Every structure is written in C-alpha cells, then in structure tokens.
Amino acid sequence: MRLGALASASGDPLAGGLKGIEKESLRIDASGDLSRTVHPVALGSALTNRFITTDFSEALLEFITPAFANTWESLHFLCDIHQFTYKRLENELLWITSMPCRVPADSLVPLARYGTSNVGQMKTIYRRGLGYRYGRHMQTIAGVHFNYSLPDQFWLEYREVVGDRQSDDQFRSEQYLGLVRNFRRFGWLVLYLCGASPAMCKSFAGNADVKMAALNEETWYEPYGTSLRMSDLGYSNQNQARINISLNSLDEYIRDLDRAIRTPEPAYKHIGVKVDGEYRQLNTNRLQIENEYYSPVRPKRVAKSGERPTTALRRDGIEYVEIRSLDINVNDPAGINQNTMRFVEAFLIYCLVEDSPPLNDSSLQETRRNHVGTATQGRDPEFQLQRGSDAVALKTWAGEILANVIAIAELIDAGEGGDSYVQAVRMMQSMVDHPDTTPSARLLDELRNANCSFFDFALSVAQSHKDYFASIPPLSKDRQRQFDVEVARSLEQQSEIEANDKISLEDYLAAYFSSG
Asked: Which residues contact 511 (CB under 8 A, 6 or more apart)?
C-alpha cells in the first residue's frame, strides 16, 4: 500500500473529498401498507426534481443531496429533504428499513410514472421490465447510496507517488477501477458493519418457499444475518449472478456492459417487448440498459441529457464512485449518520491505495460468495471467508483491513482537524470484537425485547421518525426557498420536455440504443 508516501506528501491531500447521498424510502399509509397514491405533486416532478425523485415505484421515494466536502453538510441537506417531504405527505409516513413494509400482491405494486415524454415513458417501461424479470416485490427493497470522489489535490500528489504519466482522465479512471476491484474484494466488511436488515415481513415473500427461521408469526429472519437486502433474496440474485462485467480496465468494463445490453437472453424472450400495444420491457437482452446491472459499487460520471452512462464514461473517464451496499439504519432518522460516512470514506481510500490486481471470473465468484455469505451468516462465530486458497475468519481479516483504514483516518483528521474519522473507525473496530453491537444484531435484540413483529416494530419507529422531524427547528428560509423553487422549476421543465418531443417513442428508443 502506498500509504507511507501519502503521509509524507505536502499539504492535506485527503481532506475535502466530495460526498453525496442518495437515500430511498417507501411511502406508506398510516396503517403501514404500501401507498397506492401517485407521487405527490407538492414534491415536484419525479422526472426533473434534482433532490426528490422516485425509483422503481410511485411509492419509492429517492432523496438526492449535492456533493459536499463535509459529511455534516451532506447529512444536514438529507435531513432537510426529509423535513420538507414530511410536511407534504399529509397522513403518510416513510418506511424506515431496507426490507419493505407490508406489500400487496406483486402486480399491485405501482410502477413509477414520469409523464408522457419519450424519456419519461422509457423510464417507466424499464421499470415494468424489471418487474417482469425479477418481480416487483424485490424492487421495493430500499437502501442508501454513498457517492464519493477524491479531491483534486490528492490526484496531483498521488500521481507523483505512483509515478504515472498517463493523461489525467486515464490515470483517475485506472485508479478508481482499482478502488472498485478492492471494494468487491473487501466490501463484505461494509455488510458486516453497516448491514441492518437481518429480518423481514413475511408478506415480502408471498407464497414463496422461504428457507429462514421464523422469529414470530409475521417475521422471517437469519439468526446471524447482516443484510438480507444484499443476499440472494435481494439484489445479489441468481438472475444477475451469471453476468460478469470486467473491472480490469475502463475499456473492458464499457465493452462488457455494452455487450450485455445487446445480447439476447432466452429467459426474457417469452415476456415479449410490446404486447397488445403496451411495452413490457425495453428489449429481451440480458440487460435492458446499463443501470440494470446490479453491483455493490459502480464507477460513475455525470451524464449529459439523453446520454448513456457508458457513453459518459467513454467521453471523459470515471468521475466518482457510487457505493450501493449500505442498508438504511433504523436508528437514524435520516437513515445514515456521520460515523458511517466517515468510515466509508476512509475505507474507500484504503481500497484505492491498496494493491489491486486484476479480477478474473473465478475471483469475481469468490468475492460474490464472501459477499452473500456475510449477508446471511456474517455474525456466526464459525463463519469463514475465502481468501484465495485459504479460509480465514471474518474477525481476523477485518482486523487486518481496519488497521490500515485507521491509518487513513489519521491522515484525513490531520488535514481536517480533530479526530472524528479515527473515532468512527474505532467504533467499527469495536463491532468486529463485539458482534452483538452491530446494527443487525441490535435490531434483532430490539425485536425480541419488544416481543413484536418486524412490521409492527418498524411502523412504530416510522411514526417516531416523523415526530422527530416535526419537532426540530423549521427549515431555514433559504433552504425552504431552494426546495420550493426546485418543485416549481421541475414541474415546468417536465412540461417543456413533453411539449418539445418531436419524434415517436419508437424512434426515440431506436436512437437511444444506437448511440454510443
């Protein structure tokens, strides 16, 4: 690892990395059932509002913060979005766990709608396709995404440490992909430390044969589980396990994603594309679009309007990384706290500066086994991870990693002042030594102590979180104005987009898939 050279670098190269949060939450009615109402117009247009949109369902809100150099600024903005939203939900609540509320029959989960424009219709068709391919229940699982980019000063210093003479874009892309590969190798640690979904409402499974223990009449759970959301039950599902996307170079990554959205998949052919005049999916290929490929981490670049993600990456390289494996923390009204953000930032820097050899198909499968195993068994004292040809205890490997992450935290603190990053990592170290203090273990303890179902417990906490946001000081006038202006602007922009469509939906889709 190149940590020693960074420690001797001039200035504070690790201070001031940009951090943004995307947090999903289901809207529910007062009795805890999934909301069947349309996206509230008081929140603006889901198509164009920069801060409040929807994901799979009309009921699945997604809150998006700008990227800030300070963790508190990001968290404060996220809290402000919650406060603004609660005031406009009338009698509804936000569900506060990653595993969903009491959900209706699969076909009754409402798809997100984005208006009559071509781009809006395409977004809904894509979601309809996800429902056919994976089931709508699976798409109601919610999480927190952490977006991160290292500061410009870091890249100036780090190029000298590495001695690389590629262009700026090539160098950053290569290093970010090294980070991504290592996150795939070591990301099981995030599931262990931050996983908060060891239990779920039985309604989620419907009539499926669930091989889990029953905590009570309404609750399934894994006794040593950390994150059912990230297990085979959720996003690490078998349908996607067969798709291997290379992370060894940006060209290979783009090539494999492009190939997946152009390769027919027999399992999806029977669904059809346009049936009785309605699109069921965008195509019958392995992936409808790039975003369908689920990974716990994604290399990203902000795309221009109508630009495909891979086109944006091909244009100027990787701009930031998106971490997608964080569960909603039940104990935090906003779903995440600063200690988690600080730990993840230091961990990501560790993943970047640690040696990161290429991953082949076999090693990718090893990372997946470690990932899914930690999701379902991570707190089991007998659980072991696979490291090459060796089996290693999670506690042993986690301790080795965290010893380096805390050294990173010390460098960040040296640049920003204080010891908040070191304290955050030490808190994580204590959870490795004491598995009963992890969020997943604490949630199961609370369910047992309350002697209630997962559903009833989560509904009670959802009400308390609503009460919390009602009790804190109101939004500042500037923030209130910012959100009000965004609501009005987004509605106006959606109308303009719809009015300016000049081609048919079929021609729009053909043009989109022929680009890049």
From this structure: 503
**Looking up tokens 């009698």, which residue turns up?**
91
User: Could you give the angle at which helices 168-186 and 152-162 cross, rounded to 10 degrees?
Assistant: 90
Residue with tokens 């940009």: 18
| pLDDT higher than 80, residue 10 | no
Provide the β-strand partners of residue 392.
Answer: 385
Residue 3 tokens, joined: 């940590």
Res 237 pLDDT > 60: no
- Around 146, how many Cα atoms within 13 Å sit in the side-chain half-sphere? 26
Angle, helices 477-500 vs 118-134, to 10°: value is 100
Helix (H) or strand (E) holding 300: strand 297-300
Closest of 411, 24, 404, 445 to residue 189, by C-alpha: 404
**DSSP 8-state symbol, 474:** P
Q: For residues 21 and 292, what is the distance between their CA atoms, to the nearest angstrom? A: 20
Tokens in use for 96? 């506060």
Residue 51 has pLDDT above 70, yes or no: yes
CA distances from 418 to 46, 410, 413, 415, 422 (A): 40, 10, 6, 9, 9
Cβ pair 92, 30 in contact under 8 A: yes
Instruction: Identify the burial level of 430 via C-beta atoms within 10 angstroms of its C-beta, where 0-12 means exposed, 13-18 middle and 19 or more buried.
Output: exposed
pLDDT > 70? residue 9: no
In the block, which residue shows the tokens 């670049």?
301
Domains and CATH numbers, the chain: 3-510 (3.30.590.20)
For 275, list phi and psi in degrees, rounded to 5. -125, 125
With cut-offs at 50, 70 and 90, classify the pLDDT of residue 321: very high
Interatomic CA distance for residues 272 and 279, integer angstroms: 8
Question: What's the whole-model pTM score?
Answer: 0.96
Q: How confident is the model at residue 127 (pLDDT cuts 50, 70, 90)?
A: very high
Residue 54, CA atoms < 13 Å, CB-side half-sphere: 29
**Distance in angstroms (rounded) separating the CA atoms of residues 510 and 118:** 11
pLDDT reported for residue 1: 57
Strand pairing partners for 93?
28
Query: Which residues have C-beta within 8 Å of that of residue 256, sequence separation ≥ 6?
Result: 244, 245, 246
Helix (H, G, I), strand (E, B) or coil at 73: helix
- Measured between alpha carbons, how far is 407 from 34 in angstroms, rounded to an integer? 45
User: What letter represents residue 260's amino acid?
Assistant: A
* Span 273-291, average pLDDT: 96
